[in-house]
Amino acid sequence: MDAKEQAEGEKRVRDLLIGPLLRRGLVKPGAMTKAQFDEMLADLAKRLAYMTPPNLAALEEMAAAAPGGKDRDRFPIANAILKAAAQIQPPADDASPLIRAVFAHAVGRQALAEGWAPELLDDLRRTRRWPGGYALGQIRQAAGEALRRHAHLAGADPAFLDPAEAAWLRDREAQLARCRRIADLAGAAA
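^ thats the sequence. predicted structure below, dont judge the formating
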């Protein structure tokens, strides 16, 4: 997302999520200062700039149905809104700081070198957690069959692959390329 798209996205978040919630009468959480509240709203706009208008409208409806505070009149905290946003429209892989960080790390480079990067990406999408040693072992183990199949099909003459095998190989190569792009983006940002 370039700077122009980011700015347009932030405006969309203010117009379709933050503004409507404030117009409903939701006020800053009691434990926050006005400056902290303004900072939270600005951060929300930045983080949710990727969302489409229909999904922002759905998020606004969900957030309005779950206000905070004992009187249920407080703006929901950012973490609750971000969690709901991830259910409605998860950020693209290249927009996730966690995914970028993992692919910039030795773990991501190893996954790319050994060919199990798509399984690592799937795990990161699902758990939204940095993978520890046990998780990495499970990811590698789950990737075993795909790695064997990829090695077998990549070494075969494309003319002799049946259409299903050729489609699987193209899809696997596209997944690996997507992971390399994420790693390249992470390296460029570092």
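The two ends are 17 Å apart (CA to CA).
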